[in-house]
Amino acid sequence: MSMDKTWQSNICWAEGRYDRLPALAADLVGRKVEVIAAGSTTAIQEAKSATSMIPIVFVVGGDPVRNGLVASLARPGSNLMGVSIMASELMPKRLELLSDLVPQASGANLTFGTLGSGPKIRRNASRLRIPSV
């Protein structure tokens, strides 16, 4: 196997300003990149809006089907492909397992970094009688 290929990467950062994402996606398409890697649902949606030809690779914490990114997990049906850890969708099961494994526990500390998953996690914690702050 030969290592004669040159790899070039372009890192585009919106600096937390989602309004910049359409222009960044259009810029990548204009550069005729071979693949786009996106790490948030909003960035993926903007890249998807900008091109149907360039492959878009993603890693997301939520459900890409529910978020309208792909048609199904088995058959995405577009130029998107990636991995989802389905963090908030699996949290009820994780809490249930924790409750089963440590039935004498009177509480659990959960830390999460996204605003979107908080209410769902609190509802499931409440259902399992795990108090939340």
Overall pLDDT:
80
Instruction: Please identify which CATH superfamily of the largest domain we are dealing with.
Output: Response regulator
How many β-strand stretches?
A: 3
CATH secondary-structure class of the largest domain: Alpha Beta
Question: If you had to describe this structure to a student in words, what would you say it looks like?
Answer:
With 133 residues, the protein is α/β, with parallel strands linked by helices. Helix content is 34%, strand content 10%. A 3-stranded parallel sheet has the order 1-2-3, with helices on one face. The longest helix is centred in the last third of the chain and has 15 residues, at 87-101. The protein is elongated, with a radius of gyration of 19 Å.
